[in-house]
Structures are given as structure tokens and as C-alpha cells.
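Researcher: Here's the sequence for the chain we discussed earlier.
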Amino acid sequence: MTALFALTSRGLEAVCAREMQRLGLAVGEIGYRRVHAQARGDLRPLLDLSTADDLFVEVSRWSGTGHTRAELDALRELGRQLQLDPALATCARLRPLAQSPVFSVTANFVGRRNYSSDEIKTALAAGIEAGHGWVYSADDRAAALNVRLFIEHDQVLVGVRLAARPLHRRGYKQEQRPGSLKPTVAAALLELLDLHAGETLLDPCCGAGTILVEAARRGALVQGGDVDAGAVAATLANAGHAGVALAAEEWDARRLPLPDRSVETIASNLPWDRQVSIEGDEATFYAQLCAEMERVLAPGGRVALLTNRPEWLHFPRLACRQQVEISLFGQRPVIGVYFFDDPM
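Model: Thanks. This is the structure I predict for it:
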């Protein structure tokens, strides 16, 4: 068995754990922004984990780490003593790696410290270089391996990234728009919808098309649009980079050119706050948009919407099944999940 941990956005830990279980992992501890699991056999399918920002082979856990600068010397010594060879061998089964690879360090912490993330990285890297002869690069893009250090209060978790690059960094996401979602958050909306291959999915406010592309990669039949022609162009460009087929057009989401009850699922990152402005009264916009989404949703359909204004979401024939608060853009928006409550 291989011990792993995934890092994800705050609030999406349970969603990520659900996807990991579906991929065959034995999920254990779930903590702040992280999910621990055990895996057996070929680890290559785990590189398709869509709701995790990154995935690591667990190397070590330490306790008793304090907040004073004296801890930097302790981190340097602990880095020297790390047992990294098993993790290196695990990663080498997925891609070619040198015995003394170029490595980077990523560090973050919860709780106040008298030292910075950069100082943590420098201390740990010095210890690894001294103890293992690996070569440190401050540029993660130039490194073959990444060592991740995650400090939560007095607990330290260390891992080595399984993939060559972070899982959230999708190659297709080359065109951006204001308020565009991280692919992992877009994938979380689809996970909460329990989207299946062959189902139809609509994103009425598609932005750069991240939700649409993630849904198409799952085998859904997708269509979307946006009032901004530039967003539609970005969507089509990103779909081309991803090698997926989808339909996107310029439209007003309050007047969709779609038949009644014509789509099985809807997922969208609605315009909210500073990211994307709404012309006119925002509450009225939401009311009109909700009515139109309900009109085109087929009986038995499901909806997942991200917004910081969940109180403005009203669907007479849809029942709210779940609300998930996440951390995004320095705020706490909510993913609301709705199911059709009236089959007639």
C-alpha cells in the first residue's frame, strides 16, 4: 500500500474524498484542505483526480513544531533526515527520474509564525541537499520533483508530489476571463451533481468555459454561453486545447434560446461581487436567471451553482439538497445543489 494525501480548496475536502473513493482509494483522515488515503497497485489513474489541487506520496509527519525562528534549524535537520528514497521510487514508476533529481519545495502553514514560507522552504531545501545530494531549484517549473511541507499548528506533514506538475494546472486552461474558476472547483460542482457520461449539461454563464470543458472530459454532452463575446471565444479556444467538443454561443442567460425541459443538468459559476459585474439590480437578475434555468431543466434534473448570494437562488420546483461553503478569491461563496422536486 502507498500512503498518499491530496490537497484541495477549503470546503471541498469531502467532495475530494468522495472522488478518491470512487477511484479505488481507501480514504482515512480528512483535515483542513487535505485528504489522506491508501492506494494499492498502479497509481497512474490517480493522475486524473480532478477535484484535488495536488496529490502527494506521504513521507513523514512531525509534531511539536513551534512558532519561533529556532524552528528553522529544526526543519533543516529534519530535512536532512527525511527518508525520500521510497517516494522517489514510487514517482519513478510513473516517469523517468534521476537518482539525485532537481527538486523544489512548497510550504504553507496554518497559525501564526515568526518565520515565512520562503524561510521554511530555504531551511528544508538546505537539509535535503545536505542529506541526499539532491539539487534544489527555487523554480518549481524547473524541478523534476516537488517536496511539499504543510504545517497546521504544531503538526508538520511532508510529501513528494506524485505527478510532474500540480493536478490543478490543466494544460487546456490557456484563456482566462475575470472570475474564471480553477478547474478543480469546476470539477467539484460536477462531482456534487454526480454527472455521468452521456448526460446533457448546460452552463448559462460559461466565462472561459472551465465547467464545460471539465464536463466534456467526463463524457457529458455540453453546451453553454455568455453575454460576453470574448468569454465565448475563450471557451471555444480552451475546448480546442482540451480536444473536446462543445457548443458555446453569445446569449443573455435570462432568455436562453433553448426548449423547455431540454437539459438534464446545469452547473455554473454565477456572476458575483467583484469578479464579474451585473448590470441593473442584482436580485432581479438572479430571479430572472433562476426562472430561466428552471424552465429549461428536464424533470429529474439537477443544478449546482456557485455564488456568494445563495439567498437569491429561488426555484419553486427544485429542492436544495446541499450547500457547501468554500474559500475562493479571498471570500466564502457557496455551492448550492438543487434537485427537481416535481416530476410533473
